[in-house]
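Slide 14.
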Amino acid sequence: MRILFALFLIFTVFYACTSKLDKSSELIMTVTGLIDANAIGKTLEHEHVLVDFTGAEKVQQPQYAQKQALDSLLPYFIQLKAKGVQTLIECTPNYIGRDILLLKSISEQTGLYILTNTGYYAAADKKFLPAHTYTESAEQLAKRWINEWNNGINGTGIKPGFIKLGVGKNNLDTTEQKIVKAGALTHLQTGLKIAIHTGSANAANDEINILKEQGVDPMALIVVHSQNMSSEDQINIIKRGAWVSLDGISDEPEAIEKYVNFLEVLKNENLLHKSLISQDAYWLVISKENGEFGFEHFGSPYSAIFDVLIPKLTEKGFTEDDIDQLLIKNPAQAFKIGVCKIN
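Slide 15: predicted structure.
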């Protein structure tokens, strides 16, 4: 009886997400169109190409010449492709420098699959929220994001591959609750998964509660920056149904040790299948005195996972299957399009 009950639970979870595209295969949306989830390959699930910290509605983004940015940054993504990476989940939201045309150019010239996003970012004291966030309802905000899915972003035809939101370090305030609700409503209409910059375990639990109130299964949620929580909190988030994203990996020895420890705990708890890893690296738009712009790199190298983390995990007994679980299988499951409803 216990075995039958376990099989029932597995069947229920597996089929909790249903495709919005009426396709027989499981699909992921990239800036160049749909791909089969099985084609995702090695994936960095939380990275940035360019970010612009000027603030919402203060300038017309992007501020720089597109060709200048492409010429400056393209070599780094050619190198990334040479490392065996096939897919880049680009997590820069609207009003923080989301540049979908640059992403498409990089994708076309490197062969990388790149995902962009829809949604708003309420962390960082809400500096990056447009004014209409405060006057519109969750339903109105969701309508904007659903429109980007249905019709493409800013008339380009390029569609988001996921929903990116951001909240602060405490329990969610009314504005943060509203954008998470809007994310849930958008998910129910599009099947796009929801990745939320999350400052604490309390915030993560609030997110899960809001999704459940809207009838969304937490398996649609990726809790970004889970490395800033304890192993106990990470385990609880997974057991409540969401994904944990450990996405600040760098090549610093102390940082690597922290991530190895987190992953050892998750593996020992048989929860590696709900864990994601990435580096959260980015290039920042820098304004110069002559009115021109430059780009400065922040965070770890895009290659820290491959150069430092994987060798350390191998020393600790992680197998090739474990590494593939983290870099291929899990991102494919986490970002495939499908509405996740509570049964």
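Speaker note: Residues 238 and 271 are 7 Å apart (CA to CA).
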